[in-house]
Amino acid sequence: MSKDATVVRSRETGSEAFILTVLRVDKTFYANDRSGRPSYSDPWADEVTWLAGDVFYARWEDVLVGATAVVSTLGGFGNEEQMKRINGEANTIAVDAAKEFGIPKFILISVHDYNLPSFLLTSGYFTGKRKAESEVLSKYPSSGVVLRPGFIYGKRKVDGYEIPLDIVGQPLEKLLSSVENFTKPLSALPGSDLVLAPPVNVDDVAYAVINAVIDDSFFGVFTIEQIKEAAASARV
């Protein structure tokens, strides 16, 4: 990857594994995080330029100068107001700042379009995510990228402890892929996506982002299957 990228992230997303995967391909990488560099001493963290800052009060001239793409992994849960703020408002601010500074591409890690009952989709989590998506697609109609993975699995660190989400995610992904032809008729049932939407390896999300950064023809909204296809293309 020949272009620099800035990641605006939250710890809640477990984006360390995401950054580590991107580093295997390119090392011109900047991460903006509220507390800056993680406290643990994994060697890969030394290969990232860490910038401490809250997205609501960020000094964007320090974060965005020299970048040719912005990747947002901002997201999280909480009460209604908190979810609207972190999933929607925070991402919207990042999109607007990137546009103002002339960054040519914005990549948003969003969420799968679950076939849930409408009253559940009005929660702050989903409305915030969709608000952020709309901002990306309106400000970057021919270069903005929205990735919609479901459950993202990989190894995640919380307070220095590693949680191997891949122990659950990987076999579940393989199982759902193997029975896909049998479960497709069930996809019309409300809420079935919660069980049938296959998990996504964090490496696939990262490689899809790499594809988005290096390929100017890669833009728009990408489903779980399209994320995996994009990742496969980037690995070639």
Automatic annotation (TrEMBL):
What Gene3D superfamilies does this protein's entry cite?
NAD(P)-binding Rossmann-like Domain (3.40.50.720)
An annotated Gene Ontology molecular function: protein-containing complex binding
Recorded GO cellular component terms are: mitochondrion
Matching entries from PANTHER family are given as: NADH-UBIQUINONE OXIDOREDUCTASE 39 KDA SUBUNIT-RELATED (PTHR12126), OS04G0403500 PROTEIN (PTHR12126:SF5)
Q: What is this protein called?
A: NAD(P)-binding domain-containing protein
